[in-house]
Amino acid sequence: MPRLNELRPAPGASRKRKRVGRGLGSGHGKQSGRGAKGQLARAGGGKGPQFEGGQMPLTRRLPKHGFHNVFRTEYSLINVGDLNDLFDAGTVVTPELLHETDAVKQIKDGLKILGDGTLEKPLVVKAHKFTKSAVGKIEAAGGKAEVI
Predict the structure, then answer these.
(1) What is the mean pLDDT of residues 112-128?
(2) What radius of gyration, in Å, describes the C-alpha atoms of the chain?
(3) Quick one: which of 124, 109, 123, 118 has its CA closest to 137?
(4) How many CB atoms sit inside 10 A of residue 137's CB?
(5) Quick check: 78 and 113 in contact, CB under 8 A?
(6) How high is the pLDDT of residue 121?
(7) Phi-psi region of 29 (alpha: psi -120 to 50; beta: other; left: phi over 0)
(8) Which residue ranges make up each domain of the chain?
(9) What pLDDT was estimated at residue 107?
C-alpha cells in the first residue's frame, strides 16, 4: 500500500507544461510557436468562431421573434391519477410531500393539480391551483381540495 507522500500520477497520465519563449534551444523560442507576424501572432488575436469574414452574420440575418415574459408564473403539474398511485387514503398531500417523494422534481412558482386519471381514495390535497375536473374528482372520491 503506497503512502500519501509516495503517490504519483500513472505513467503517461501527465505532461510537462509547454514553456514558450525560453530560448531557441527549447524549440519554442523566438516566436513561441505562433509563426510570423500578423493578427494571429498577437495576444488576443483572431476573430473568433462566429466571424463570417465581413458577411452579415447569421444571427443578424435571421428575423427577431417572440417574447419572454419575466412575470409569468410557471406551475409544476401533476395529475390526480398519479396521486391515486402514490398515496394511501387519508393522506394530506402538500407540495413539499410531493417533492420529497419525487413525484414532482421541483416546485416552480406553485403546484397545479390536473384532472387526468381516476382517483379512488379520499385525499386532502393542498395546492396553489386546481382544474375544475381535478376538484370534481377529488371531492367525488370523498377528499378535499384546498387552495394554498
Answers:
(1) 89
(2) 31
(3) 118
(4) 25
(5) yes
(6) 86
(7) beta
(8) 19-48, 76-147
(9) 85
Instruction: Please identify, in words, the CATH class of the domain defined by 76-147.
Output: alpha beta
pLDDT 10s digits, 34-49: 988 999 899 988 888 8
The label of the residue with cell 394530506 reads: 92
Q: Is the pLDDT of residue 12 over 90?
A: yes
| The C-alpha cell that represents 14 in the structure block | 501527465
3-class state of residue 144 by DSSP:
strand
Distance CA 135, CA 124 (A): 11
* Residue 122, all three cell numbers: 379520499
> What span, in angstroms and rounded, lies between the C-alpha atoms of 50 and 69?
28
Q: pLDDT at position 72, please?
A: 92
Amino acid at 96: E
- What would the mean pLDDT of 81-96 be, rounded to a whole number? 86
Confirm if 26 and 16 have CB atoms less than 8 A apart. Answer: no
